[in-house]
């Protein structure tokens, strides 16, 4: 199978676009075919094992569960991130000019029972304009048993929630937890190869992985307007590879141009 056949390219229809506007999220089924999932799993696990050890309850979430810039270590992820079906979907939801803003693995391996509380992704890296997208592609079947995501439909309409942090909390990269009505939460159960897409203001959380035999491995890719700036960093342009359209920032035009 050719690499481009690993992915299922598609456009969102009017109903899906309206659902995203109202609820703030969509699940796209089978966006990666089984052969593509196997390749991505293999490459991601090779990278993971180079840098990560087994789960340690005394380590931070960052140490136990996250590996950044996975597209630097996985050619299959790089193709999916920069040229896969999520790029066209992002252009429908954000606009014609798109850049990749983040790529990472967020793995909750069996035995990692640490929850991650309610938060907005734009709380950890506030970008403007406020239309950045988080995409989570499941590399395993994910459900309540192995720590799937939960979110609150429509919560993106609250806008940016400000959480005060002192300098020590910022330096330690402590969790930015916000209050949420648990009764409104919906589990995002997916099959391997499905992708969850949601607005940067969406309230979401994940519980621990209480399965004794199943990992919960997710590929986290974030897309933003090509001219998006970092509000938290002197309003500098967010660096990321331009994947569609144009940008006014020369730094973005040149970023990762060698890849």
From TrEMBL:
The record's section on Gene3D superfamilies has:
q2cbj1_9rhob like domain
Q: Does the keyword Cell wall biogenesis/degradation apply?
A: no
Query: Which InterPro entries does this chain map to?
Result: Phytyl_CoA_dOase-like (IPR008775)
Any GO molecular function: dioxygenase activity
Keywords attached to this Swiss-Prot or TrEMBL record, sorted alphabetically, are: Dioxygenase, Oxidoreductase
Query: So which domain of life are we looking at?
Result: Bacteria
Q: Which cofactor does it need?
A: Fe(2+)
Which protein are we looking at? Answer: Phytanoyl-CoA dioxygenase family protein
Source species of the chain: Mucilaginibacter sabulilitoris
């Amino acid at each position: 199978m050719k690499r481009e056949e690993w992915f299922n390219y598609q456009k969102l229809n009017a109903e899906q676009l309206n659902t995203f506007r109202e609820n703030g999220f969509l699940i796209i089924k089978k966006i990666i075919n089984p052969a593509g999932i196997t390749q991505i799993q293999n490459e991601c696990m090779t990278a993971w094992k180079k840098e990560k050890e087994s789960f340690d309850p005394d380590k931070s979430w960052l140490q136990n569960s996250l590996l950044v810039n996975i597209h630097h270590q996985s050619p299959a992820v790089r193709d999916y991130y920069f040229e896969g079906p999520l790029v066209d979907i992002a252009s429908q939801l954000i606009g014609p000019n798109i850049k990749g803003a983040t790529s990472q693995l967020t793995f909750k391996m069996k035995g990692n029972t640490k929850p991650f509380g309610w938060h907005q992704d734009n709380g950890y890296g506030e970008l403007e304009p406020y239309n950045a997208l988080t995409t989570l592609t499941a590399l395993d079947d994910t459900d309540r048993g192995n720590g799937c995501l939960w979110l609150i439909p429509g919560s993106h309409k609250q806008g940016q929630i400000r959480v005060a942090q002192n300098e020590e909390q910022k330096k330690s990269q402590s969790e930015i937890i916000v209050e949420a009505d648990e009764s409104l939460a919906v589990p995002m159960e997916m099959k391997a190869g499905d992708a969850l897409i949601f607005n940067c203001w969406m309230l979401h959380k994940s519980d621990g992985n209480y399965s004794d035999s199943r990992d919960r491995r997710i590929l986290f890719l974030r897309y933003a307007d090509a001219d998006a700036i970092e509000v938290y960093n002197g309003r500098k342009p967010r660096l990321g590879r331009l994947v569609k359209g144009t940008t006014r920032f020369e730094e973005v035009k040149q970023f990762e141009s060698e890849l």
